From TrEMBL:
It is found in: Cell membrane. This is DUF3817 domain-containing protein. The chain crosses the membrane at residues 21-41, 53-77, 84-102. Keywords: Cell membrane, Membrane, Transmembrane, Transmembrane helix. It comes from Corynebacterium pollutisoli.
Length: 117
């Protein structure tokens, strides 16, 4: 797509909605991953006694990551990403802090490509 081509407003709306869902799930996944990493460092490195209910953090991150993957799939289909973009975006949810950077980059790229406000 060139810069002079206009995007159909209905497609812009679909991509914009998918982008918002992607951004929300990326942030939620990233926050849960940071909490999980802190919990694991406390438990395994610093040998802090962690209550059994704290396993909810790992479960929450797992569910958030599944939602993130669905959002990646949704946005990737609508934005017609190349396979390498899909893979790197999907993997960003399992590397601490990376989901924040990838989300910002993908948001910028998609907004520019689809002429979103």
């Amino acid at each position: 797509m060139t810069a002079t081509q206009t995007i159909h407003p209905e497609r812009q709306k679909r991509v914009d909605t998918a982008l918002k869902l992607f951004s929300v799930t990326a942030w939620i996944t990233g926050v849960f991953l940071i909490i999980l990493v802190v919990r694991m460092i406390l438990e395994y490195v610093l040998k802090v006694e962690i209550p059994s209910w704290a396993t909810i953090v790992a479960i929450a991150h797992g569910w958030a990551y599944m939602a993130y993957l669905l959002a990646v799939l949704n946005l990737g289909l609508k934005a017609r990403w190349k396979p390498v973009t899909w893979i790197t975006t999907a993997l960003a949810g399992v590397v601490p802090f990376l989901s924040f950077f990838v989300e910002a980059n993908r948001r910028r790229e998609v907004k520019e490509k689809f002429q979103l406000a």
